[in-house]
Amino acid sequence: DAGLVHPDIIHFDHFHNEYITAAIYRGIPGLLGLLGIYIIPLLFFITKLKSLPIHEKVYPLSGAVICLCYMTFGLTQSMLEHNSGAILYSTLIAFFWASIRSLPRPEEN
Description:
Layout: H1 18-51, H2 58-73, H3 83-101
Helix pairs in contact: 1-2, 2-3
């Protein structure tokens, strides 16, 4: 209203960056929460990737790739701000997590 910015800028309603959006609208706790949404499943998948036999690594590898893709997409688009992005991320993470949990466990001797 004070004329400090060009009037065309008013039409833009988001930052096209997941991390900046979280930090501006939700503060440091929001940014840490967003990073937790990405990093906690990623660490789970990486841990399982190291411990599973080679023929069962497809599930943790796929889950880790989903986490890394969404972290990368977040640099240029607010993926979790859209219903479709949030639902797809949570569904894929849950699917690969459940797939890992359903693998047969080695029998204890």
